[in-house]
Design goal:
The protein is an alpha+beta fold. Helices cover 26% and strands 31% of the residues.
């Protein structure tokens, strides 16, 4: 499989422009208390980050090796978003979610992060696919998945269903 990532220390994943770093307990606590940390972009955390951080206590597996990560811009060292896998897998599949703060959108960070975490997810024992559902009314998110190597596999009303396997990623 072509790899856009390099394993780094302490479980971090490195891409050309990003570090995908696991959330620390202090960062989760800061998000939940509304405290700003100095290594965050001015518009981090976004609403989605706050929602996910609030669910970590209920879903501790989301913080494991194949779980949620902060997206850190290598050039600045600032956290500019998050990307995550909703662990554990169901029937060999994991769901992915992602978000980049408004001030850094349009730079290709979301597809870069989604592809890197998807490649990593496919190395997990028993995982053969990563999927995402996107509202049809959200074309930017559709483009993120397409650029990350996902293919559309169906729809359900207002939701478009996407999936990526190792074979899908090899085609890109």
């Amino acid at each position: 499989m072509p790899s856009s990532l390099t394993p780094a220390h302490a479980g971090d994943l490195l891409t050309d422009r990003l570090v995908l770093r696991s959330w620390s307990a202090a960062e989760i606590d800061a998000v939940l208390r509304g405290v700003r940390l100095g290594h965050w972009a001015e518009d981090f955390p976004a609403e989605g980050d706050q929602v996910v951080a609030g669910l970590f206590a209920e879903h501790p597996g989301w913080l494991g090796e194949y779980g949620h990560r902060q997206v850190v811009e290598r050039a600045s060292g600032l956290v500019v978003g998050s990307v995550g896998l909703f662990w554990p897998p169901a029937d060999g599949r994991l769901e992915i979610g992602y978000g980049i703060v408004a001030g850094r959108r349009g730079l290709g960070y979301a597809p870069e992060a989604a592809r890197a975490l998807t490649e990593f997810a496919l190395t997990a024992p028993g995982v053969h696919a990563v999927h995402a559902d996107v509202e049809q009314s959200n074309p930017p998110s559709v483009r993120v998945l397409e650029k990350a190597g996902f293919r559309r596999v169906g729809s359900d009303g207002e939701l478009l269903r996407f999936r990526a396997t190792e074979a899908d990623l090899l085609r890109r």
